[in-house]
Design brief:
The chain is mostly helical. It contains 2 helices and no strands.
């Protein structure tokens, strides 16, 4: 039968199909979460900053006016981060 297969996450012996890499779904999920954690963390951080910027704009922009002129300092005082925006008008 060959060498015993070992789980890529917990190093336990794997039973079942010959092409399995993990002993269970928990190990598979943990392995992939750790693998993708750094990428996902930076995306989460950027999305958080974009959400904050949207909240700032929603708090300043009157609902009945689609466009107004704002001073940059007014945005900065509310916590708007100029390096994180998706588009401008």
């Amino acid at each position: 039968m060959g060498q015993p297969r070992i789980c890529a996450y917990c190093q336990e012996k794997i039973r079942g199909r010959s092409d399995k890499k993990f002993c269970n779904d928990g190990c598979r999920n943990s392995f992939n979460n750790r693998l993708n954690g750094e990428v996902n963390a930076s995306i989460r951080e950027i999305n958080s900053k974009l959400r904050r910027n949207r909240r700032v704009l929603e708090s300043i922009l009157p609902s009945d006016m689609p466009f107004i002129k704002l001073k940059k300092q007014a945005l900065l005082n509310k916590g708007f981060q100029l390096n994180y925006l998706t588009h401008t008008h």
